[in-house]
Amino acid sequence: MKRLPIGVQQLVEAALLMTSTERIDAYARLPREDDTSDKQVLIEIPSNWPSCGAIEYRHYSLRYRSGLDLILKNINIYIAPGEKIGIIGRT
After folding, report:
1. What is the rounded CA–CA span in Å between residue 44 and residue 47?
2. pLDDT tens-digit profile of 21-41?
């Protein structure tokens, strides 16, 4: 009878691994987005719009809503004009 719990545990672990694999496969099969880098801008930009903006956060913390734990804690980040970044996480 001791083999049943071990077998069940291994099935659960295999199912979890398959979920990860299925998630990766789903992302790999997403249709490619159109390249819009050569298309004209269709909106008129106001003359006072900044031409070289940057983004900076100092000691920034964030939670999804009041009463929940912080998901970002005291981060500092500077994103230079024209710089492209990607932020990834568990979900």
Report:
1. 9
2. 888 889 899 998 877 777 776
CA atoms within 13 A on the CB side of 51: 1
Handedness of CA 45, 49, 52, 55 (dihedral sign): negative
36-79 pLDDT, tens digit each: 777 776 788 888 888 888 999 999 999 999 999 998 999 999 99
Hey, what are 60's tokens? 């920034």
Tell me if the pTM is above 0.70: no
The four Cα atoms 31, 32, 36, 38 give a dihedral, to 10 degrees, of -140
Terminal C-alpha separation, the chain: 37
- What letter would DSSP give residue 33? P
Of 53, 55, 87, 54, nearest to 72 by C-alpha is 87
